Amino acid sequence: MPAKQRKIAIMGFRSVGKSSLAIQFVNGQFFDYYDPTVENTFTKTVKIQGQEYCLTLVDTSGQEEYSIFPDAYAIDIHGYCFVYSIDNKKSFEVVKGIYQKLIALTGPVTVPILLVGNKVDLKMERHVSYEEGKQLAEHMKAQFMEVRYIYHLDHINHSFILMLISLIS
Q1: Torsion (CA) 85, 90, 93, 95 in degrees, nearest 10
Q2: Homologous superfamily (CATH) for 4-168
Q3: pTM value?
Q4: Are 91 and 13 in contact (CB under 8 A)?
Q5: Which of UniProt's keywords are assigned here (predicted)?
Q6: pLDDT tens digits for 108-167?
Q7: Would you kindly state where each structural domain of the chain is located, as residue ranges?
Q8: Contact at 8 Å (CB) between 127 and 89?
Q9: What are the beta bridge partners of residue 47?
Q10: How far apart, in Å, are the Cα atoms of 139 and each of 115, 122, 169?
């Protein structure tokens, strides 16, 4: 049986770690450098309940608070991963804006959402509390986790697999 195709858009403010998340999930590697992304796609095939799924992660360029929501990220997308950095309040506000723009474009969101607070190793510079992230996730009806990709590969893999399971349920 051929692999079924599923696509997840990874969105958030610039420099929050969207590319690192995708690369770590697909390749199991962490790269500690920043190379601004225009847009990139990563694929990984996983087997769930005897069925293969080709999961495509669309690594989007960093969104700004006043940018429009690209139509391409509302069509043929099966789930969303919104990423912010716990040391950057603006990145958290941008994620809120992305979600509001998505609702304005598509109506109530019916696909799975994963909200990720990145860079927990920067706890001394924290500007977004765990509680704020959790509350936003509840508002979005999203899964929520805080990570530092280099330390939390198992959490990342588990979260994407759970998201894929909810896509096929």
Answers
A1: -50
A2: P-loop containing nucleotide triphosphate hydrolases (3.40.50.300)
A3: 0.85
A4: yes
A5: GTP-binding, Hydrolase, Lipoprotein, Magnesium, Membrane, Metal-binding, Methylation, Nucleotide-binding, Prenylation
A6: 888 889 999 988 777 788 899 999 999 999 999 998 988 775 555 566 666 767 766 776
A7: 4-168
A8: yes
A9: 52
A10: 11, 25, 22
